[in-house]
């Protein structure tokens, strides 16, 4: 039997960290679906047409630190608003979710569109200020300078684009469990997510 954990939420709320930890805890496979859109965004920045890039994506395209830049994140958020790009990526995500050892997928529309029948749906969020501060700390750890105001503006712009688009906008599924990580440590947030999964896994 398949067992799918859908983790959605805005950028820098902690869903990637939580998804990786939940997958490791239960021995499930993990897919960061943002990487699919980032890989398409990177190809578009290199001159490709968005839909063709999405159709031609291979697992090798999902590797590499180059997908982590702000420029690629912006491009990803833009190509993610194109219905044909989203449609081209559905089958890969659903096949991954159906793995027999169970799967954790994190993104924006996993609980609402990709896996509406997922056994566990978590919506991980945090205040924009808190997410901007985390981004700033992440950048500082890599030796990259930034200002809080600039990063907060980027966070708000990406939130607006992701939640206001017509196709598969960022929003919690009606039956999602909300997990606000603003005042939680990573350990606390992971422990809550693990408890939700354990309660439904039996
Ligand atoms: O999670 P991330 O920052 O890597 O995602 C990059 C962009 O991809 C994000 O701004 C919106 C888009 N995205 C999406 O539309 N649907 C998903 N399931 C995952 C990401």
Description:
The protein has helices at residues 15-26, 34-45, 50-55, 70-79, 83-97, 110-114, 128-141, 148-164, 186-201, and strands at residues 4-8, 29-32, 103-107, 120-125, 177-180. The protein is of the alpha/beta class. It has a single domain (4-201), classed as P-loop containing nucleotide triphosphate hydrolases (Rossmann fold, 3-Layer(aba) Sandwich). A five-stranded parallel sheet has the order 2-3-1-4-5, with helices on both faces. The chain starts with a strand and ends with a helix. The structure holds 2'-deoxycytidine-5'-monophosphate (DC).
Summarize the structure.
This protein has 202 residues and is an alpha/beta fold. It has a single domain, classed as Rossmann fold (3-Layer(aba) Sandwich).
Chain-wise SSE layout:
Blueprint: E1 4-8, H1 15-26, E2 29-32, H2 34-45, H3 50-55, H4 70-79, H5 83-97, E3 103-107, H6 110-114, E4 120-125, H7 128-141, H8 148-164, E5 177-180, H9 186-201
Parallel strand pairs: 1-3, 1-4, 2-3, 4-5
The structure holds 2'-deoxycytidine-5'-monophosphate.
């Amino acid at each position: 039997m398949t067992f799918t954990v859908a983790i959605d939420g805005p950028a820098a709320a902690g869903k990637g960290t939580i998804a990786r930890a939940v997958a490791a805890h239960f021995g499930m496979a993990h897919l960061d679906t943002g990487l699919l859109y980032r890989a398409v965004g990177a190809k578009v920045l290199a001159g490709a047409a968005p839909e063709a890039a999405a159709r031609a994506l291979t697992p090798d395209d999902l590797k590499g630190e180059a997908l982590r830049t702000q420029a690629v994140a912006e491009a990803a958020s833009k190509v993610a608003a194109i219905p044909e790009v989203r449609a081209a990526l559905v089958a890969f995500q659903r096949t991954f979710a159906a793995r027999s050892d169970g799967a954790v997928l994190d993104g924006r529309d996993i609980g609402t569109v990709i896996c509406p029948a997922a056994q566990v749906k978590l919506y991980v969020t945090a205040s924009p200020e808190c997410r901007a501060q985390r981004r700033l700390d992440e950048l500082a750890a890599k030796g990259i300078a930034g200002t809080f105001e600039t990063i907060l503006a980027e966070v708000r712009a990406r939130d607006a684009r992701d939640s206001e688009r017509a196709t598969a906008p960022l929003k919690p599924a009606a039956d999602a469990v909300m997990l606000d990580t603003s005042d939680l440590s990573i350990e606390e947030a992971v422990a809550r997510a693990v408890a939700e999964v354990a309660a439904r896994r039996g």
